[in-house]
Write a structure and sequence with these properties.
Layout (H helix, E strand, L loop, with lengths): L1 E6 L8 H12 L2 E9 L12 E6 L5 H17 L5 E5 L4 H11 L2 E6 L13 H14 L5 E4 L2 H11 L4 E2 L25 E7 L8 H7 L6 E7 L4 H10 L6 E4 L4 H8 L4 E4 L6 H4 L5 H8 L2 E4 L3 H10 L2 E3 L5 H13 L1 H17 L2 H12 L3
Helix pairs in contact: 1-14, 2-3, 6-7, 6-12, 10-13
Length: 370
């Protein structure tokens, strides 16, 4: 049986893309071993059809984290047998590329985002130059290149002339049972409920601007599900704007439980306010979660998200994202309930097409080449 060492710096317990890819690899006859990290407070792993090693790291972020994680990953890979080494994002690429070269093994590189254009590298020219060097030198060494949407594939081709195969971050079809209701979380049945979910509720993701919009639109509630560095500021903002009864924070929870909350919403929010290229070209998996939940979508001008909302006519898109425009759009939804219900119906239709069952056929074809 062909062995794949599947490397990622995220917490595999909550990385849905990694879990889906690895399950498919097992279905296709590969023996998979995932190498990841274990964060403080990481949930226990469920029973999985593949083995996992999670590194507990003394440094949780910053240059020292990347240095020691890559060091440990290199020696782990060096003394493990494999047919294929699968690197997820640039922060695992160097040890994967070096070991694949030393041991003459196939290398797959899967770019989940435009790593060199994340907000954390703005104003950090030295760090950005290092990651750009890694991207330029090591990505051409891969035997197969994958990314999450066409915009990123075009960006990589413009930069390096490399062809990336697109496998989007589309979820599995799940059967949602309406166990949760608005009233069970303290929300009136007639209120317009918006949801913003994700594991990266960070600055620039539109949370603060949404909170600033809420005082302009009565009878609108917001449910925030997940974790991120914008939450502390958001909670302070809620207190200063007297929004404690209208904003409902739910910590990071298992995927199925998160979806049980998402489905009671009327509108899923999918926009960013930071101008970094990584955000602008992103196609976050929450857009597909909103389809699965059968709720309308409010997005910004980001091309990948807007394309889907326009394609399925399942919501509205803003040309600019600021508190005033958000408030205007929420007021429109609130006063056009029949149109809102039509958006929801179309979102449920989109969920029949935008599923992992359809998307995975592309990955199955690619696997035949390795």
């Amino acid at each position: 049986m062909r062995n794949i060492l599947f490397c990622v710096s995220s917490d595999v317990a909550t990385d849905q893309r990694v879990l889906r890819h690895c399950a498919l690899l097992v279905e296709q006859g590969f023996r998979v071993h995932v190498v990841a990290r274990k964060k403080t407070g990481s949930p226990d792993l469920p029973e999985l059809p593949f083995s996992v090693t999670r590194f507990s790291m003394f440094f949780q972020s910053g240059p020292l984290f990347y240095l020691f994680f890559n060091f440990r990953l290199f020696f782990f890979l060096l003394f493990r047998s494999s047919s294929v080494i699968w690197s997820n994002d640039i922060d695992t690429l160097v040890p994967c590329a070096l070991v694949s070269k030393l041991k003459k093994k196939k290398l797959v590189f899967d770019a989940h985002e435009l790593f060199t254009e994340v907000p954390e590298l703005e104003g950090a020219s030295a760090k950005k130059k290092i990651w750009l060097y890694v991207e330029r030198i090591f990505t051409p060494k891969a035997d197969m290149l994958i990314t999450v949407n066409q915009s990123l594939a075009r960006q990589f081709y413009q930069r390096y002339g490399l062809k990336y195969n697109v496998i989007r971050n589309v979820p599995l079809t799940i059967n949602l049972e309406k166990k949760t209701t608005k009233t069970s979380v303290g929300i009136p049945d007639d209120a317009l409920l918006c949801v913003l979910q994700g594991s990266g509720l960070n600055k620039g993701r539109g949370l603060i601007e949404t909170l600033q919009a809420l005082p302009m639109v009565p009878n609108v509630h917001l449910m925030v599900i997940g974790s991120g560095d914008a939450l502390e500021e958001a909670k302070t903002c809620c207190q200063s704007l007297d929004l404690d009864r209208r904003v409902h924070f739910i910590p990071r929870i298992p995927y199925a439980e998160m979806m049980s909350y998402t489905q009671i919403a009327d509108i899923g929010l999918a926009y960013d306010t930071h101008a970094c290229l990584n955000f602008q070209l992103a196609l976050p998996n929450k857009i597909f979660d909103y389809f699965q939940a059968g709720i309308a979508v409010l997005c910004g001008p980001q091309p990948e998200i807007k394309h889907l909302v326009d394609q399925y006519a399942c919501g509205r898109a803003m040309d600019i994202v600021n508190p005033e425009e958000i408030a205007q759009q929420l007021a429109y939804f609130s006063s056009h309930r029949e149109e809102l219900e039509e958006y929801k119906r179309r979102s449920r239709q989109a969920a029949h097409t935008e599923t992992w069952d359809n998307e995975k056929t592309k990955l199955i074809e690619l696997l035949k080449t390795i």
